[in-house]
Recover the amino acids of this structure.
């Protein structure tokens, strides 16, 4: 289409070397990580995470790492770990696909 190249063999070698799957993975992996991040911060904004971390340290230092408050923090942390685990699963699934961008990254997340 009007494009001229003085080294067509070199141009073809570049075209032939393009790895579509690898390129798709560079797109889908960050999208999966961002989806996990959005889900986590929608429930636990960063300021709440920081406060919970500080409070957990305080409870541990006071020897009070038990009871309803502690259990609520542990429950929230278990949910975060489940979201991260699902992210890991999606990344592994993407790596197995010939066309990783076809993976539905919105399905199956923990509630």
């Amino acid at each position: 289409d009007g494009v001229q190249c003085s080294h067509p063999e070199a141009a073809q070698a570049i075209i032939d070397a393009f790895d579509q799957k690898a390129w798709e993975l560079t797109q889908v992996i960050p999208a999966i990580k961002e989806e996990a991040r959005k889900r986590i911060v929608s429930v636990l904004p960063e300021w709440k995470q920081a406060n919970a971390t500080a409070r957990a340290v305080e409870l541990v230092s006071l020897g009070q790492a038990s009871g309803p408050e502690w259990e609520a923090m542990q429950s929230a942390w278990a949910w975060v770990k489940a979201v991260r685990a699902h992210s890991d699963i999606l990344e592994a699934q993407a790596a197995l696909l010939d066309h990783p961008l076809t993976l539905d990254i919105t399905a199956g997340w923990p509630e």
In short: The chain has four helices and no strands. Residues 68-96 form the longest helix (29 residues). The mean pLDDT is 93.
